[in-house]
Amino acid sequence: MSATLDQLIATRIRQDVQGMHAYAVQDSRGMVKLDAMENPHRLPAALQKELGERLADVALNRYPGERIDDLKAALARHAQLPAGFGLMLGNGSDELISLLALACDLPGATILAPQPGFVMYAMSAQLQGLKFVGVDLTPDFELDEKAMLDAIALHQPAIVYLAYPNNPTANLWNDATIEKIVQAAPGFVVIDEAYQPFASRSYLDRMAKHEHVLLMRTLSKFGLAGVRIGYMMGPQRLVQEIDKVRPPYNVSVLNCEAALFALEHEDVFAAQAAELKRERARLQAALKDLGLKSWPSDANMILVRVPDPAASFEGMKARKVLVKNVSRMHPLLAGCLRLTVGTAEENAQMLAALRSTL
Ligand code: PMP
User: Fold this and answer.
1) What does the pLDDT profile of the chain (358 residues) look like in tens digits?
2) Ligand 1 atom 2: the closest Cα is on which residue?
3) 59-264: same fold as 5-45+267-357?
4) In this structure, which residue's CA is closest to atom 7 in ligand 1?
5) How many CB atoms sit inside 10 A of residue 323's CB?
6) Which of 4, 77, 163, 341 matches a 20 to 30 Å C-alpha distance to 138?
7) Measured between alpha carbons, how far is 214 from 306 in angstroms, rounded to an integer?
8) Which ligand 1 atom is nearest residue 117's CA?
């Protein structure tokens, strides 16, 4: 006799999965959406039309083929990847983080990352049955060098993640500390440069000195969050090994063509990033004028401390402005909201909404 649905779920779905909450995306219709570090700009109308024609011409009846190789070559050019390094594609860097855990799935392996940090590192460990070790940042959100080195020595992690800049604190790490971590790491170090379009430094030039460093980027913050293209770069042979666990057709032909089109117009996105960096500076000054503590940012987000984060979050939401309340994510983030940098108009609306809640 076949089992009931309740029995099936109770006995055939992993216990820890049953205990999880699904990743919830908030309904943002009609809202000023400043919760997820998206680029607020859409493609200019003329380019939208041109892209539409390009996409109409894509052979949807075929599995992704050579155009994927074209995209990998275009991304390598875009990133100025040195010769001898390889590049693999993910359906967003979220997928790359999962694939890396899958490839490193040794019994008892550990993934280590500073905390507070991007949640997917811990989630990828949990889902692959790996151990996750989070090492607290200092109260001003710097890497705690000694704590990181001690934890690496103790746990011998298969992977160390360093988001550079970090999410949600938006800062870059001290470069001498990174080098010490890289020297000490017995496994891979992944430098996650999701926010590279807004950052003042990159690890790319230093990557070539190390055989165990991988560099991850995404087109999401560049302006194509909906297109879901992430890429990971590292020594060719290493990337080839990790690429073996990738589902063969993980990037769709439409996503691939849209990304290729966007890279042909990278100057448009570079101008948008430059404008967002100017807006970031204006926003930081305005937050200071409101008497609020915010931290320096090398990303398209700003972490700010407010007297009552829940009241500010709800008050802003009631005024149709959506930000992220990160105050309960980690004790170091007590009182904090994370604000995505939007257009001048959106930022003005956001500031007015925030002011009214203080
Ligand atoms: N890395 C970091 C540090 C992030 O903050 C994010 C997204 N918020 C990602 C990776 C994932 O980006 P995506 O899957 O859109 O490429």
Assistant:
1) 788 999 999 999 999 999 998 888 888 999 999 999 999 999 999 999 999 999 999 999 999 999 999 999 999 999 999 999 999 999 999 999 999 999 987 788 999 999 999 999 999 999 999 999 999 999 999 999 999 999 999 999 999 999 999 999 999 999 999 999 999 999 999 999 999 999 999 999 999 899 999 999 999 999 999 999 999 999 999 999 999 999 999 999 999 999 999 999 999 999 999 999 999 999 999 999 999 999 999 999 999 999 999 999 999 999 999 999 999 999 999 999 999 999 999 999 999 999 999 9
2) 194
3) no
4) 194
5) 26
6) 341
7) 36
8) 3
Please give all residues whose beta carbon lies within 6 A of any atom in ligand 1, as ranges. Answer: 37, 92-94, 118, 163, 167, 192, 194, 218, 220, 225, 230
**Class of 59-264 in CATH:** alpha beta
| 3-state secondary structure (DSSP) of residue 74 | helix
Between strands 336-340 and 301-305, the pairing is: antiparallel
Alpha carbon of 16 to ligand 1 centroid (Å): 24
Distance from the CA of 273 to the center of ligand 1, in angstroms?
17
The ipTM value here is 0.99
Domain boundaries along the sequence of the chain: 5-45+267-357, 59-264
- Mutate which of 88, 93, 329 for ligand 1? The one with the most ligand atoms within 8 Å of its CB, which is 93
Contact 232, 239 (CB under 8 A): yes
CA of 194 to the centre of ligand 1 (A): 6
Architecture of domain 5-45+267-357: Alpha-Beta Complex (3.90)
Note whether 87 and 233 are within 8 A (CB). Answer: yes
Question: How many Å apart are CA 295 and CA 305, to the nearest integer?
Answer: 9
